Amino acid sequence: MSRPVLQVVAASTRPGRRGLAVAEWVRRLAEEHGGFDVELVDLAEVGLPVFDEPHHPRQQRYVHQHTKDWSATVARGDAFVFVTPEYNHSFPAGLKNALDYLSVEWADKAAGLVTYGGVSAGLRASAALKPVLAALRVVPVVEAVSVPFFAQFLDDEERFVPNTELEAGGKAMLDELLRLTTALRTLRAA
To answer: How many structural domains comprise the chain?
Structure first.
């Protein structure tokens, strides 16, 4: 069986964002892990408009090309790591919009959560995201990475440079994500 495809989803879409550096770190960490074929999916580049399909996503009767393209991207993935900031005690609207566009494509896949922010480390974003993922039948792994005061981990070139604890947490998340992804792939094939 081929290696599962892990999509690292950069959730921040705003100009001047710095979270893409966190997503790039997760991508590198996942590539070093070796258990996945890794893709970086930048929601700013995907550029979805506010949900505009006339039919419910469960029907997969998409009329817009941007939705068909998004469907093909997500369907290709076997697992996800959502890299998200915390905005107003939740996750960004762009991520909610991207999740809402689809249904079947998300189902029975595992997800890791990497959140970042100030003192809260994005934990409220994680708490808000989990019931949305559950409604889409995405299974979040318990292991996660929460980055407090994330700007302290950016070097002079705006690259994310984690400490030992964040690195270990990321590796543990990826190990569990691979274990669960392997089981869910069997379920999806049945």
So the answer is: 1
